[in-house]
């Protein structure tokens, strides 16, 4: 029940809410309507991250988030997965879920542009039903970017998502890094067997 409640809250806050709010505005042009709706959605998302980043109780969660990033960065750099070594790596990662959510909202602007400004009930239906399609596009974009981190254009496009991660990550302790390393090793063992250093590299989402 709690999971369904959380999903409903997220859809209402980040998808349906901005659409209905934009629908209250006197905008007749479909393109401008979708653009304004998208700006409202991104603004709500950023403000939400800012607010939760101020909560002391979430600091530990954000530390584990950063520990996860550091472990994956170290693994992808071919370094030994030891806390002291992993600690040196960045707490930012291009395939982070924070960046993914931002791109979901940006891509939604382009997808919804095809529908213009429909009636309010179709507005809600399209925002919910097209979410899997938009999420799939965003996922593939994040995967592509993760494989082309040396490309300045790609990293420039990802820059806003990377900046947002400053709100959802905090410097982890060595104990937290040990937990993230253990979790990563478990994932690698499941994906490619006991040899987590085989040539068949695993692409881990952060």
How does this model look, in words?
With 206 residues, the protein is mainly α. It has 9 helices and no strands. Helix 3 crosses helix 9. The model has no long low-confidence stretch (mean pLDDT 89).
SSE layout and pairing:
Layout: H1 2-23, H2 30-53, H3 59-76, H4 83-86, H5 97-112, H6 120-129, H7 131-147, H8 152-168, H9 174-192
Helix pairs in contact: 1-2, 1-6, 2-5, 3-9, 5-7, 5-8
Provide keyphrases for this structure.
206 residues, 9 helices, 0% strand
Structural class: mainly alpha
Distance between the termini: 26 Å
Radius of gyration: 19 Å
The largest β sheet comes out as: none
Question: What is the helix fraction of residues, given as a range?
Answer: over 70%
Shape: elongated
* Secondary-structure element series: HHHHHHHHH
Mean pLDDT: 89
Query: Runs with pLDDT <50, length 5+?
Result: none
Number of helices: 9
Strand % is under 5%
Strand elements, count: 0
Short structural summary:
The chain has 206 residues and is mainly alpha-helical. It is built from 9 helices and no strands.
């Amino acid at each position: 029940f709690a999971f369904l409640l959380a999903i409903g809250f997220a859809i209402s806050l980040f998808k349906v809410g901005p659409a209905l709010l934009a629908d209250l505005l006197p905008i007749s042009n479909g393109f401008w309507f979708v653009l304004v709706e998208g700006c409202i959605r991104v603004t709500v998302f950023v403000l939400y991250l800012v607010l939760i980043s101020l909560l002391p109780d979430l600091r530990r969660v954000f530390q584990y988030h950063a520990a996860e990033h550091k472990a994956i960065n170290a693994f992808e750099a071919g370094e030994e997965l030891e806390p002291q070594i992993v600690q040196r790596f960045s707490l930012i990662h291009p395939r982070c879920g924070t960046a993914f959510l931002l791109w979901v909202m940006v891509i939604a602007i382009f997808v919804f542009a095809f529908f213009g400004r429909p009636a309010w009930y179709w507005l809600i239906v399209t925002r919910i039903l097209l979410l899997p399609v938009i999420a799939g596009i965003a996922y593939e974009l994040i995967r592509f970017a993760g494989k082309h981190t040396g490309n300045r254009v790609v990293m420039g496009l990802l820059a806003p998502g990377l900046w947002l991660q400053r709100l959802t990550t905090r410097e982890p302790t060595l104990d937290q890094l040990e937990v993230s390393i253990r979790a990563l090793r478990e994932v690698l063992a499941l994906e490619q067997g006991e040899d987590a250093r085989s040539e068949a590299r695993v692409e881990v989402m952060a």
